[in-house]
Amino acid sequence: VSARVFIADALNNGAGYALELARDDTLTTLLRRVRDDMGAQLRDSRHADECTSSCPRCLRNYQNRFTHWALDWRLALDVVDLALGDQVRREWWESREDELVAGFVRAFEPFGPLDVERVSGVPILILGGADPAAAVLGHPLWRQDAAGLNEVQTGVAAELQRRRITRVAMSDLFTLDRSPFRVYSRLVPTSW
Ligand SMILES: [Zn+2]
After folding, report:
1. Which of 6, 50, 115, 185 could form a disulfide with 126 if both were Cys (CB 3.0 to 4.6 A apart)?
2. pTM for the complete prediction?
3. Nearest partner of 123 among 164, 166, 89, 172, judged by Cα
């Protein structure tokens, strides 16, 4: 598994900035300034209270208009943390967890008994019934393939299995926000 950050000049033929910025010490300085200065502005309530994912004041511009749906300033700052070799900061996501999970439950509860629980601080959606299923709503940058699960995810899965919930799907809050039907389809039996 590897991760890469691409830096490119926006100007045709480039102005040479990307080459300069790609130098190790310059890149580290740049990333720290994004994390500390830009991060503080983005997390300030004057922005954070009004912008759940992206807006013209942070990430959106005319050039990236076709990917506005995918842009998210919290995730962007998490990627900066990872590029600097730090852990992602779950607390930024935790500030939106309650709202996202409550919205999902309101929308899908009429179709079956939905419970919300927390195991090791991670919210879990549980669809009850004869064949209960659970969706683990981890951090969007956590891997979800069986080989790449972290200790928190494997601990949560083991706890759910111990409670005889054998259908356990790894998902995340980004997917819950943008594509709630994808999360719900992981909960219902495949024979549906
Ligand atoms: Zn914004």
Report:
1. 115
2. 0.81
3. 172
